[in-house]
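Whether sequence alone determines local backbone shape is best considered at the level of individual chains. When preparing material for the folding task, we compiled for one chain both its residues and its backbone structure tokens. No coordinates are needed to read the tokens, only the vocabulary itself. For completeness, the protein is quoted in full, as a sequence line and a line of structure tokens:
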Amino acid sequence: MDSFAFGLTLLVFASFFQGTFGLGMKYTEPLKWEAWWLVHATTAMILLPILAAMTFVPNLFDVIAATPADVKMYAMIFGAAWGIGGIMFGKCVPYIGMSLTYGIVLGLCAIVGSLIPYFTMEQPDMTALPKVLGGDALLLIGVGVAAYAGIMKDKMTGDSNQSNLKVGLIIAIISGVMSAMLGIGFSEGLPIRDIAADVMAKDQTDVDMGANLRNGSLAVWVVVLWGGFAINAFYAIFLLFKNNSWGSFATLKSGKAYTWSIIAALTWFGALAIYGQGVSMMGDIGPVIGWPMLMGGGLIVSNVWAYRSGEWDGVAKPFKVLLFGIALIIVATIVMA
């Protein structure tokens, strides 16, 4: 298997984790959401990235120290921007409902997170542009169809909630663009990966630069997620003070909630870690096609879990529409690959 095909295979596994981590968010009780989220964010954005990177990258913090300050600054700024986008996602759900919010945010996140790295490449391969644009367009349509299926389902089951469509749409659009900053932050932080790969090569008799780049990608997430954690932790702590809910951490019989918080952290960061390794095997075009594949694949997996949990029972017509949307996402993935 060549490196590009291996990278695509890793993206499939990353998509599985991307579509799975949300299961844990169904088990936040009896903890307050902000307490559950602070535990989750600390584990997913601080502890796991550092642990994973230190396992594969010797002298991790020396590598980060050797990285130019502007690279680290931009990586953290984009990470922080993603954190803001995630908070806005939660804010627009009460206005336009989960299905429409998810469709708009995911669609814009995939497209923006693909095209910005493409057009900011030093020498973009313009011959690939039609396939990239065609794949992104198909993906956007597929996500839109899947979102429409969700809206149909919500109306049939009485879960529809659109209290202020205009405000909700504005927030969702901003959230979608900001959420793409996580992938862009990774692209901007790739010099960290390259420095890590060079450091590892110095201690190797038989240098495997492909493996070094793949493992070095873990160091990028450490820096990007510092920015993301700052925003998420600030918001959670703000809510803890606002709601006077610090006592929630000591709530009785909360072991299950804590466990699912950790599981969600493992799957969430697992998706990013594997994604970073996968796109590192695919050359400069990796982040351009890898990010929308991660978003589209995650949407497919999350709906598989939703189907298994019975969320689509008794709504045959919306489910058929969903299957059509999923088919379009798969075709988009093939086009870009």
